[in-house]
Amino acid sequence: MGGGILAWMLAPFNKAAPKWVALIALLLNLVIVAGVWIGFEATVSLSTNPEWITSIKADWIPSLGITFHLAMDGISLVMTALTFFLGILSVLVSWKSIDKNTGFFFFNVLWLLAGITGVFMAMDLILFYFFWEIMLVPMYFVMAIWGHENGRYAGWKFFLFTQISGLMMLLSILGLYFYHGSQTGNYSFNYFELLGTVPGGTLSFWVMSGFLIAFFVKLPAIPFHSWLPDAYAESPSAGSIIIAALMSKTAAYGLIRFVVPLFPDAAHEFAVPALAMGAASILYGAKLSYAQKNLKRLIAFSSFSHMGFILIGVFSFNILAFQGVLMQMVAHGLSIAGLFIISGFIYDRIGTLDMQEMGGFWGNMPNMGGFTLVFVMASLGLPGLANFAAEFLVLAGAWQFNVLMSVLATLGLIVSVTYSLRILQKIFHQSRHSKEMELSDFNLREWLVMGSLTLAIVWLGFFPQSVVRTVQPVFNKMEISSSTVNSEQDEVVDANSDYDLNGSDKNEEGGTAW
Amino acid sequence: MVTLNDINALLPEIVLAAGAVIVMLMIAVSRNHVLSNILTQLTFFISFLFLISNPGEPQLSTNLFVADALGKFLSGLILCSAFVITLFSFPYFNIQKEVKEEYYILLILATLGSVCMTISSHFITFVLSLEILSVSLFGLIGYLRHESTSLEAGIKYLVLAAVATSFILFGFALIYTKTGEMSLGGLGAGFNTGVFDFSYLILAGLALTIVGFGFKMALVPFHFWTPDIYSAAPAPVAAFVATISKGAAFVFLLRLFYSIGGLAFGSVWVAFAVIATASMFIGNWLGLRQQNLKRLIAYSSISHLGYLMVGFLSYSIAGIRASAFYLVIYFTSILAAFGLITYLTGKRGEPVMIQDYRGLFWKKPWLAAFFTLILLSLAGIPFTAGFMGKFYVLASGMSTGRIFLLLALVISSTIGLFYYLRVVAVMLVREEPALPEDYIGKQSLALKFLTIGLFALILWLGVFPNTFFNMLGF
Q: What is the mean pLDDT of residues A452-457?
């Protein structure tokens, strides 16, 4: 199994060939992941707590204690499966629309996916950082070469933002490394060894903030979002899908995997501001989204708004919210990919993304309209579709932690209806502006893409349990470990947790009164 | 007394000196470009072999030189770079109108000076080696004497190098006045036992030396000459100035301040920290609007020396290791960058404007990929050599808790990223590149191999730095 994973890691690295190679490589990967998943399902029924499904480990830079350590647990499994599924879709989407330098394009896409997969599996912080950064350069190329008019500018902005935040994270990683080394005498970047070391007090806060900056920028959360509309809107559709549906998930994954377990108390202290940021992102994103004329920018801001739920879920620290976050990661990945794909298809047909010039497409393209309806409904959180399950879980979890924030976030759901419906109304129903446009409906390839996405999103809407079950063991363990740390912490710094409790109590009262 | 042992330890330098003489004599017998080039390569190669056979233990020969692991590593690095530069030089000078053979004498002499600097343990040997280096460099920089810019650059360097040397000499003199010592060993012992202290006279002396070294290493605010010299000098020579001469000066700076413990003294440390921070920021800042590629590399190298100083300032063994490793990375990247310019040089001159490279990505994808890799390495993106260098420097800084400097490094390197990306963006434009038709890389097989070699090296250093890190040997 380890060998299979190694081959799968190497496959995207080596192949720079055009679309068929890309497609086959990704299909192969998806099959492997599916195989792992099925195997995992089997083991679940046998043993109660299989924490790590597979892992490979090799020395890399022994003098600094850096290892090449990849491992996979439930979260990684779900996320890698999502990565490859959406990877295949993005290859299919670019099948026709990328006509220049296809080889280099697919090379970049594969590298991107390799980086993202690596992030989901890396268990060594330096390795994690490597994969984290490996996503940047190909993404820059994708935006700069195949993007829309302002692609180069967008690529620049994206690169600079993520680079500086990534370096902050590197500093934090180093800080953690030396702290751990000075405490235990064992200098290592390994996640498991660092897990136990919790620097106390302000140090912990500063080290955590390095990670947070990196993740907030990529997520993005509210003050760090200014790269987002440009990057999302100017990429080609494959790029938009990857960046919105997968790359932002790496940040969410980072929060779950690193910030919460590595810095439990600092994260708890930071919870209220983080929740506020989440709620603000939801509302502000929704508002901006409503005001956009460009279809892709609209979708971009809606994605920004939805990422606020992830932030809220992560910082609510209970199992319900964590499950919600994971569901949201998957569901949002699917629905946003769907919307971006649709916008890509529209762009292929009419050559613009300006919504002023669209309207009345339903007449010509009922199929597209139908699918758009599905994804719009998903994005506004209609019950029965995956996003509803996710957002419901997050909000339910957040309610237990902080009612005010959860109420604010719920408001976001209402606003999301407005902008989501606006997509549908503007593009498909309104009387048409441009008179004579040859608009063909979906062909087979497009049917395949949208059909599979719709299937996935409906399936998850009705059976969220299939994902939740996979990650359950991990979250169980995480909650236990975080609560044990908390109870220790209770004894050590009593005043601290008291304050927390009081704070949430007060908020609860405030919330009910309101 | 000079013993046989000392001579053994100094064999690499002796070979270099002999090589210069042999090349000169050969020219007297028959002028032949190929022959002089091959002799030069041989000289560097043999000298390198002797160097490898040297034991790594510190061994003082005659109080003037010290053959230790740091010196050995850096000398090896310098010899390798000089070898690479020799290879670059052949096709480059082959198409020039000047007489070519004397160039190699100067090249060997300059290398000799630099190698001696890395093993100097006494003021006098340092100043002598410095002068050997500087005097040969005037000649090298102004070598293309039919081009007025090249000559001008040579004279500029002459004046500035002379000023720098005199600052250093004056500084040394002040230190000597107070302590009566000129060998690093003696000074170190004196400072460590508390016989000497950091009185005002000593501090003034150190300040003057810092100024001199600042000129040599082009640290802000003594950096003004770099862009002019780089852009006017022939590309291989510019590579030499950017790498070897800076690296050699850095080693002695390291020896001096580590042996007397100067960095433990607050104000000295602060002075260096200010210089380092200023170099990082101003270097990257000035690079932003550059249109000339060689000037851009010049500013980039200013900021890189600033990063290097972060390793130096951590004042620990890890710091020495990190800086030595950083030098490897920096040498490789800068050599590759100038190598690429050499590669694309035609009869009409070097392609120095960034605009010349527009559309390179579509016309010559491999070259463009190589160039992109170099730029990313200079910018310090993972999986290239540059990242690993930065990583070690950051780690060494973090181990001694110099957060402020590290933040400066991070922020300034992001500023720098901006102009590296700009060059990449230019290469992505869909236009015909304005490169010379008959660029020399087309014919020269050696140049092709060298380029591929450097390409591989940058990646290798970026992915498996351990191989090289183990070579440090200290």
A: 82
* The two three-digit tokens of residue B79, written as one number: 């010899």
* Closest Cβ–Cβ partner in B383, B425, B470 for A134: B383
Q: For residue A359, what are the contacts with CB-CB under 8 A and spacing of at least 6?
A: A426, A427, A428, A429, A430, A431, A432, A433
With an 8 Å Cβ cutoff, is A64 touching chain B? Answer: yes
> Do the beta carbons of residue B425 and residue B360 sit within 8 Å?
no
- Asked if A252 has any chain B CB less than 8 Å from its own CB, the reply is no
Residue type, B405: L
Lowest mean pLDDT among A35-44, A241-250, B215-224, B442-451: A35-44
Q: Do B381 and A133 touch (CB under 8 A)?
A: yes
Residue A219 tokens, joined: 């997520």
Query: Which of A141, A160, A168 has its CB closest to that of B410?
Result: A168
Task: Report residue B3: phi and psi, to 5°.
Answer: -100, 170
B407 at A interface, C-beta within 8 A:
yes
Chain A residues near residue B399 by CB distance under 8 angstroms: 178
Q: CB of A150 within 8 A of CB of A234?
A: yes
Name residue, tokens 């087979």: A444
Q: Alpha-carbon distance A441 to A372, whole Å? A: 13
Whether residue A393 contacts residue A399, with contact meaning beta carbons closer than 8 Å, is answered with: no
Three-class DSSP category at A292 = coil
pLDDT at A39: 64
Please determine, for residue A9, whether its predicted confidence score (pLDDT) is greater than 70: no
B-chain residues near A155 (CB < 8 A): 421, 425
pLDDT digits (tens, 9 = 90+) for B30-51: 888 888 889 999 999 999 998 8
How many degrees, rounded to 5, is the angle at CA A147 between CA A254 and CA A428? 90
Name the residue facing B381 among A63, A101, A137 (closest C-beta): A137
| Min distance B274 CA to chain A CA atoms (Å) | 21
pLDDT tens for each residue of A426-439: 777 776 655 555 66
Q: CA distances (Å), A202 to each of A184, A253, B197, in order?
A: 20, 24, 38
Q: Does A145 touch chain B (CB under 8 A)?
A: yes
A416-447 b/e (C-beta count within 10 Å ≥ 16 → b): bbebbebbbebbbeeebeeeeeeeeebeeebe
ipTM: 0.83
Could you give phi then psi for residue B422, rounded to 5 degrees? -60, -40
Strand partners, B120: B65
CA–CA separation, A24 and B115 (whole Å)? 55
